[in-house]
Design a protein that fits this description.
- This is DUF4219 domain-containing protein.
- With 126 residues, the chain is mainly α.
- It has helices spanning 17-31, 41-47, 50-69, 73-79, 85-125.
- It has one domain.
- It is built from 5 helices and no strands.
């Protein structure tokens, strides 16, 4: 597996979710641990051998460590009590998933307000 260097790992901040999450997914694939955040655990828990369960636990711990290393203090506080990587990942997804929708709604609202202001200014000139 590729060596993880802390200087090369992206750090999640309030503004870089899209890029960070994409980079992290690629990193997880390179490390051979992407199955941990893709929800494979339940199948292994139900049908897996003890060796498979042990291997999955090692992968889960690795992903959780990587996530902990790649978030700023604000995000760490949100995920610090997560016991498994998928839980931490889902918390981060929930924190940022609505962000894009909120931005779009705000932008639409501002556009509409701008249009109304232009109409008011136009009405005053007549």
């Amino acid at each position: 597996m590729a060596d993880l260097s802390a200087t090369n790992l992206p750090i999640l901040s309030k503004k870089n979710w899209s890029r960070w999450s994409t980079q992290m997914r690629v990193l997880f694939r390179v490390q051979g641990v992407s199955s941990v955040i893709e929800g494979v655990k339940s199948a292994i828990e139900i049908h897996g051998t003890e060796d498979q369960k042990e291997e999955f636990k090692k992968k889960d711990d690795k992903v959780l460590l990587i996530i902990h290393q790649c978030v700023d203090d604000t995000h760490f506080v949100k995920i610090q009590n997560a016991n498994i990587a998928k839980e931490a990942w889902n918390i981060l997804v929930r924190c940022h998933a609505g962000g894009e929708k909120i931005k779009k709604v705000r932008l639409q609202t501002l556009r509409r307000q701008y249009e109304l202001l232009q109409m008011e200014d136009g009405d005053k000139e007549v």
